[in-house]
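Minimal example, chain plus flavin-adenine dinucleotide.
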Amino acid sequence: MTAIDASYDLAVIGGGPAGVATVLAARARQPHWRLLWCRGPEPVGRGFLPAYGGNSLVHRLNVPVERMGLDAEAPVDFFDWLRSEHPGREVVPGQFVPRRWFGEYLEARVQASDSATCFGAVRTLRKHDDVWRIDLGDGGAEGHAAAAKTARRVALCLGMPAGLPMAHAPTHWIADPWAWWRALPAQGVPVGDAETVLVVGSGLTAVDMVLGLRERGFRGRIRVVSPGGRWSQAHAPAAPLAPDVREALDDALDEAATARQVLGVLREFAARHPWRAVIDALRADTNARWAGLAPDEQRRVLRHAFGVWNRHRHRMAPDVCAALDADAALSLESGRIGVDGEGRILKRDRFGETVLDVALALDCRGPGFRAALAGDSLLARLVRDGVLEAHPLGTGVRTPADPSLTVIGAARFGERFETSAVPELRQQAVEVVRRWVVSGR
Ligand SMILES: Cc1cc2nc3c(=O)[nH]c(=O)nc-3n(C[C@H](O)[C@H](O)[C@H](O)COP(=O)(O)OP(=O)(O)OC[C@H]3O[C@@H](n4cnc5c(N)ncnc54)[C@H](O)[C@@H]3O)c2cc1C
């Protein structure tokens, strides 16, 4: 790493995989650029939070190892790195390896990136005379010298927004399960086997929490409650659709103008062909198909089909599914969890409302796309300041009109549908750097 300089060709804001991929894409294509990388408020050495900084090997990737590389032109880069740096791990294609290993890979790539790096939260961003001024509210840099930096271009890689907090939550309600997890002592959990843990939500973070509690020896009851009451599906080998089937699927989807029609086509094809192959066939076109839907239809997808889509699209490693199925003290229930004005945790389902007596409640309801522009995040402030424009769905921002500013990752949700997993992040990173190189701006 080099020392902070006065002015940069590109400032990358955000220290997650999107930030790393953008720094690497710029370094590879414009080696002479002066790069500033604002890695965010996480303390140095805490790894890549929330997804890849964990301390447990049971938390696994949901993408096969050979597809997780940071370089869009060499997606097997992570696999190659594991094979050369850690041959003893004996990784093979198709494996769903621990996410911690991916964090190690990110750190290794960062070490080679040669960018000026600063930590701390960027407070705001303004443009004067073709130069972006980046305000690092808390000093931010290596040392605490200048609290503002300037750059010609800025890439915002800010990750998933935080979920909305639960009003009146009691003290045993854990709003940030990853922060809680990391703060646990080296062994054990702060609940006894006679007690019950509630996990709110049944997505991948919920699965991680269940696996982590069991790994640490908790044998008590775990109740997982979500509106759908279902886990994500498991990965399984599925040969790609035959070309004629793929063509028929594309034609049928071209004709589908409403959310209901799109779902109908998918159901019809999934009934006649392996459903995993049908979902996977869509991936490259998902964003274009999403953009082809009218705004009201997009809202319908989010309201009625987002959960079912996520369960089929973001699949789990098969042995993770098997471990959940085999766990007799684990229940998965459908219902909605709330907290009343007295701090009691309530479950509402088709039978009515019950008060839950649990020792711990882990809030795993997910990233809260609808909260993307609420609160005091940098993204929300930039929208309020007029630097960025909110997407009409309220789930993220539009592509900035100013070509010297770009947004990568989850903050684009709305304009894009697939925009948060590593394969999409690395693609966006390369595209924007190419655009800057071609336009010369
Ligand atoms: C539990 C979990 C498991 C996942 N597993 C997978 C998987 O197996 N495969 C896959 O492809 N995807 C997975 N994902 C999805 C995705 O890859 C990750 O969410 C990934 O971390 C997203 O990268 P990102 O860089 O966009 O965001 P993040 O990793 O969230 O990084 C955002 C960065 O922005 C910084 N930041 C925020 N605000 C500011 C500010 N004001 N100033 C400066 N910096 C700021 C943050 O500090 C952070 O460094 C998973 C997600 C989660 C939550």
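Confidence is low (pLDDT under 50) at residues 1-6, 139-145. The longest strand covers residues 148-156.
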